[in-house]
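seq as requested:
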Amino acid sequence: MNQFFKFLFASCLGTALALVLLFFLGIGLISSLAGSASQQEKVNIKPNSVLELKFTNPIPEKTNNLPMDPFAIEQDDVLGLTDMVAAIERAKTDPDIKGIYINATYLNAGKATSSVLRDALADFKTSGKFVVSYANYYTQNAYYIASVSDSILLNPVGMVDFRGLASTIMFYKGMLDKLDIEMKIFYAGKFKSATEPFRLDKMSDENRMQVREYLSGLYDVFIRDIAAGRNIPENELRRLADQYAGREAKTALENRLVDRIAYEDEAFDLMKNKIGLDKKEKLYRVSVEDYAAARGKKTNFTVKDKIAVVYAEGTISDGTEGDPGDVYDGKYVKILRKLRQDDNVKAIVLRVNSPGGSVLASENILREIQLCRQAGKPVVVSMGDVAASGGYYIACQADSIFAEPNTITGSIGVFGIVPNLQKTMKENLGITMDTVRTGRYSAFGTPFIQFSPEEEQMIQNSIDQIYEDFLQKVATGRHMTRDQVHEIAQGRVWTGTRALEIGLVDGLGGLDRAMASAAKLANLDKYRTVEYPRTSKGFEQFVEQLTKKDNDDEGVKGWVVRRELGEMYPVYKTLRDFRKNQGVQARLPYDLVIY
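struct tokens:
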């Protein structure tokens, strides 16, 4: 009887603690939602203000579509590219906004995202309003954005990190050899180099060639835009990059990379002077996040016809739920099916920013896209920084495909990796394996038993078959022959500019061009847009993770791991994604790191 009361007391105590926790979580959630609702009211945009861009967060395609700090109840929205550009466009005609202040040392964004932002700033300047930039020092991506400014100011002990582009790949083979881990690797396409980090210690000749080609294409856009902004000849900029001429503030000024060496208070005085304020008067700066909240876009709900924008950004994975900013086939199939069955949705724009991932997940998403088109709803693809491999797979049969000039796309190829741990278990741990089989292939796929030649051939045949299917899908969608696709496929990566030349995309442009194309295909003169997937702030994400029935604590655990690993988190995430997505992969050759 004593034991019974002990267990009863423990159970009651646990329940009480859980209720207390849920109570405080509820209070926090209510506070968070109330704060979000009142944010529009508490932000007051004063006359003679400047819009401030700091770029302190990564820039997702859609606002809040990324993992956020689950305990930051008062955290502002992390603006997506679409909403950030919309805010800049509204500020262009807002009489209270006199100019834009770029206060950014870093810009955590891909090359296409950076170009879209820079184009929006260039368009803002056509209103006659100013753009001023200041930084203690400029990284290359931040300088690329700043180069559109009327005035670029640099701290006296700062620098401009202008030295050209490089792409670095991490190779794991040496580590695997030390651990006696053998990776069984299967792939189709001589340029499909996703497996190279596991089988080589440096880039293959084919991979080096394709990296050099697309990196040169990205660099051409980079130099061209800076040359236009700074009125410096392109060949002169290339020479300055080779000399690393911006590594000191003095030489950066001498070579016209910046306009003035100054402190931030002098940048404020410069903007006051442009506005017509006295030095003693206050300069009102409003962050782009606050501005978007206060003067966000208005939706006319009386318009029934809709174009749905579906943001597919991140790794394509099997399953229904996971980190925000990844594409889970169960979730996206459900979204597309809902749109297909909604009579008010007349067209779909799929915004793709993905290196690919699971072939099975990509196939499921593509099937739903095909059904949407069969239902009479045009599907138009807009490509962001990356739309490669599985990212191209889900795009290839759209009615039209648009890419930015510096989008990375293609990589039409597949691979599979199976680790063999037999040797490392025996040599390092003294553990050996034995098995009894009821059939020839009963132990097939076991990571502790060596593959037979027949089993290896079975896997390679499967890889080849999936590659052939990939080719046929692209051929059907792009109105090409299988051989024409094979010639430009084989896992090779292309820039958007080259993709247009070889027929993988229909045109160059951003989301606005894709929207115009979708409206034209659907014969729409008047429509409103709806965006998917639904996103939430960090604390809401945390509560959602706690209340899911199938919660595996991935969200909270992921937040802790990201905090601990910092810059090494992308390496961990790559290995985790390989582990999570069982079966054949259609993924970009590696995590693209360009600096």
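The two ends are 69 Å apart (CA to CA).
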